[in-house]
Design goal:
15% strand, 14 helices, alpha/beta, 446 residues, four-stranded mixed β-sheet
């Protein structure tokens, strides 16, 4: 099967290259391959599987729709299944947002929802520019790519996203976040900056593909004040951070920020394709049919999504993710203290990143008048070869992890919110063993 896949499928395939397995059964955290091997899945469909594989409540919800004889394709018509999903979705939203919210069902992928959100704010404001951030990832369609960190020819103004380990200003911490905010204000208020008032600002409360960088809460509140004061709609991309992943149901809740627009996908479909845009009612200026999608009425995904949202809410899985994530970070930081090739450990809830660096190279020099222990000072060069080696060693030990970050040097952990304490220990043990194995072998650094 792997040989046929390689011969028949596009060169654009990604996960299949690093993870040469053929899944045939799955339940919760565990995947079984065609060769009979079992794996602990900390990729979770790139964060899609909030409840893991084939959770009973999700399967039951899908069976119920199938057995009812309800239509599976309804475009944007009202159905009991859609009404139940919308009701449950609004129940989970921050109250100050839900009270004035409208929901739009668009194409089935997160990138479709991003496109709809960008088009919405441009239509509502009559402006065209977009503010986005270095390291961002918003999808693979044209508009979403323009707002992402790897874009080329763009109509988007790029702003520095604050982070500690590789701070764009070399200082990290509160000072780095303050400089990022000041840069944003200056760009918007300087009449000679070359940046006209934009249609919107889009950001991720935790950058995922960019290397797992949580936005500082105070900085996020500052971005809200900056945009609100200038009538710039703020778009929160919660495609990967939503549904309890970061320790709150929606990641913006950590900071108390109420955005104007939220982009939602991945976990809201309970493992099936579903994406929506939720936005403030005064932005609802669409003409009928101004933005549509043939598959916006996916009834099975809505049923699976309703079951998932309700299960996460009723079982307080966001709180569980916060507790378990803190425990995992503590242990992983002990790993960083033991192995110099682990440069940084960061994350929020069950969205965790471990950055691999070249321990034989000199650290970046600390800025003048700073301490080498200051966040943002003394980062070593990224080591993508080491990260890839750790990923391979993890797979040999029955653990599936993803790579991310600027140079694909960050090991990413996105386990389901239902992971048990025992499974957590097994994941950390296998990861630690893989890091130790790679650290003991010479690796050729690019």
């Amino acid at each position: 099967m792997l040989r046929r896949q390689s011969a028949r499928e596009s060169a654009a395939r990604t996960y299949a290259r690093a993870l040469p397995i053929v899944p045939v059964r799955a339940r919760g955290l565990t995947i079984e391959g065609a060769d009979g091997r079992r794996y602990l899945d900390c990729l979770s469909g790139a964060g899609t599987l909030a409840l893991g594989h084939n959770h009973p409540v999700v399967l039951e919800a899908i069976r119920k729709v199938l057995d009812s004889g309800a239509p599976l394709h309804v475009l944007d018509l009202a159905t009991p299944v859609k009404d139940a999903f919308t009701t449950e979705l609004f129940r989970t939203l921050p109250p100050a947002f839900a009270d004035r919210a409208r929901v739009q069902f668009c194409g089935p992928a997160g990138t479709d929802a991003v496109e709809a959100a960008l088009k919405l704010v441009r239509t509502a404001t009559g402006r065209s520019g977009i503010l986005a951030f270095t390291g961002a990832y918003h999808g693979m369609t044209a508009g979403a790519l323009e707002a992402s960190g790897g874009a080329g020819d763009v109509r988007v103004t790029r702003l520095p996203f604050p982070q500690d380990y590789r701070c764009p200003f070399g200082v990290g911490g509160e000072r780095g976040a303050e400089l990022s905010a000041r840069w944003t204000e200056s760009l918007l208020d300087d009449t000679k900056s070359g940046v006209p008032l934009p249609a919107g600002m889009i950001l991720e409360p935790v950058q995922g593909e960019g290397g797992v960088h949580p936005a500082p809460d105070a900085w996020l509140r500052r971005m809200r004040r900056i945009t609100e004061a200038r009538a710039i709609p703020l778009i929160a991309d919660e495609v990967q951070t939503g549904v309890g992943r970061t320790g709150r149901f929606w990641a913006v809740e950590h900071s108390g920020v109420v955005p104007d627009v939220m982009v939602l996908s991945k976990a809201i479909g309970g493992s099936l394709p579903l994406a929506v845009v939720v936005y403030r009612d005064d932005l609802d200026v669409w003409k009928p049919g101004a933005h549509a999608g043939t598959f916006r009425g996916n009834q099975l995904a809505m049923a699976a999504g309703t079951a998932t949202l309700a299960y996460v809410r009723e079982n307080r899985l966001a709180e569980r993710a916060a507790t378990l994530g803190a425990r995992m970070l503590d242990r992983l930081r002990c790993l960083a203290a033991e192995f110099p090739c682990v440069g940084d450990v960061r994350g929020r809830g069950l969205m965790i990143g471990i950055e691999l660096v070249n321990p034989e190279s000199a650290s970046d020099p600390a800025p003048p008048d700073t301490s080498a222990s200051l966040p943002g000072a003394g980062a070593r060069p990224a080591a993508p070869a080491l990260a890839a080696a750790v990923q391979r060693e993890c797979l040999r030990r029955g653990l599936i992890v993803e790579l991310g970050g600027r140079h694909a040097s960050v090991i990413r952990l996105l386990p389901p919110l239902t992971i048990t304490d025992e499974q957590t220990d097994a994941v950390l043990d296998r990861l630690a063993d893989a890091v130790a194995a790679v650290a003991a072998e010479p690796v050729v650094h690019p």
